[in-house]
Amino acid sequence: LTVLNAGRRYLKAEDLSGKVFVTSGLGGMSGAQAKAAVIAGCVGIIAEVDEAALLKRHRQEWLMEISNNLDHCIARLREARKNKIALSLGYHGNVVDLWERLVRELDTTGELLVDLGSDQTSCHNPFHGGYYPVQLGFEEGKQLLSSNPGKFRSLVQESLKRHVAAINKLADKGMFFWDYGNAFLLEAQRAGADVAKKGANKTEFRYPSYVQHIMG
Questions:
Q1: Does the structure show a pLDDT above 90 at 79?
Q2: Which residues of 170-205 are buried (b: 16+ CB within 10 A; e: fewer)?
Q3: Residue 179 forms beta bridges with which residues?
Q4: 93 three-class SS
Q5: PANTHER family, per this entry (predicted)?
Q6: What is the pLDDT confidence band of residue 209, given thresholds at 50, 70 and 90?
Q7: CA–CA gap between residue 47 and residue 159 (Å, rounded)
Q8: What is the pLDDT of residues 16-32, one digit of tens each?
Q9: Which residues contact 55 (CB under 8 A, 6 or more apart)?
């Protein structure tokens, strides 16, 4: 319902076939995102750093495909988008790499490959394993979290700034991003990312909330 309503409200589209939804998180409640993309009829690319979560969703048949190769992900995205095929593709890697690759595609080809975007990393708990920084692999991140939590925290905040910078570039070209109630925008703001709504008070963000603006 969230994906469908986002399409209706922000794309003015009842039919999401050929539209692309990019997000992250396939553990816990976020695991439903892959299934939601297919039910909505769009192309869903969902990043997840934890291979166990990806494999679980694939076994459940909530996730149709898995890849750890961004070239392959972009090729599949283009193919499914062109042919208007519903697809849920799990990218085994950090979502920041995925967003930055989409920016690179925009910069080199002029093509905006994503229509809708969100995030379901556990940003309510970003410094204790809810969000893994792009600068490190998953296992390296776990080791650093254990050995040097202060350094881990610093890398998370740097990663959040890169995360938002990529989203902002795509949003400026017409991609619609929303907060999924996971404190992503709040923690990004605390990290110093550019998420404030221009001309508004500090508690208002430039991107909508699924509760207030989409489902509400």
A1: yes
A2: bbeeebbbbbbbbbbbbbbbebebebeeeeeeeeeb
A3: 209
A4: coil
A5: UROCANATE HYDRATASE (PTHR12216:SF3)
A6: confident
A7: 15
A8: 999 999 999 998 878 89
A9: 66
Domain assignments of the chain as residue spans, ordered by start? 1-215
Q: Within 13 Å and on the Cβ side, how many CA atoms surround 63?
A: 28
Instruction: Read off the tokens for 118.
Output: 């969100």
Q: Give yes or no for residue 197 having a pLDDT over 90.
A: no
The two structure tokens encoding residue 100:
């930055």
Hey, is 66 helix, strand or coil?
strand
Taking the CA atoms of the chain, what radius of gyration do you get in angstroms? 16
Name, in order, each residue with C-beta under 8 angstroms of 87's C-beta and a sequence gap of 6 or more. Answer: 37, 38, 43, 44, 64, 65, 76, 80
Q: What is the mean pLDDT of residues 173-187?
A: 92
Query: Which strands form 43-48's sheet, in the order they lie side by side?
Result: 65-67, 87-92, 43-48, 20-24, 116-117, 176-177
CATH of domain 1-215: 3.40.50.10730
Task: Please give the C-alpha separations between residue 213 and each of 178, 180, 186, in angstroms, as whole numbers.
Answer: 9, 11, 17
